[in-house]
Amino acid sequence: MMTGRRGLCTLPVLLMALLAVIVGSGAVWAAGPKNPQAARAARAGAKPKHVSRITPQIPKANRYQPGKVFLENADELVADENRSTDYQVLRGNVRFRRGDMYMFCDSAYFYDKTSSLDAFGHVHMTQADTLQVYADVLHYYGDEQVAQLRHNVRLENKSTTLLTDSLDYEITSNVGYYFNHGTIVDNKNNTELTSEYGRYEMDTKQAEFSTNVHLINDQYEMNTNLLRYNTQTHIATILDETVIVNDSNTIYTSNGWYNTSRDDATLYDRAQINARDGKTLVGDTVYYNRARNYGEARGNVIVTDEVNKVILDGDYGYHDEASHYSYVTRNARAREFSQGDTIYLHADTLCTIMNDDSVRVLKAFRGVRFYRSDLQGICDSLQLSEADSILNLYRHAVVWSGERQISGAEINVHFNDSTADWATLPDMGLMVEHVGEDYYDQLSGKKMKAFFDHKELRQLDVDGNVMVILYPQENDSTYNKQVYAESSYLKVNLKAKQEIERVAMWPEVSGKVTPLFLLRKADFYLPMFNWYDSLRPKSPDDIMTGSDEMRQLMSTPEQTSTRRRN
Question: Which of 2, 68, 342, 439 is 20 to 30 A from 539 (CA-CA)?
Answer without folding.
Answer: 439
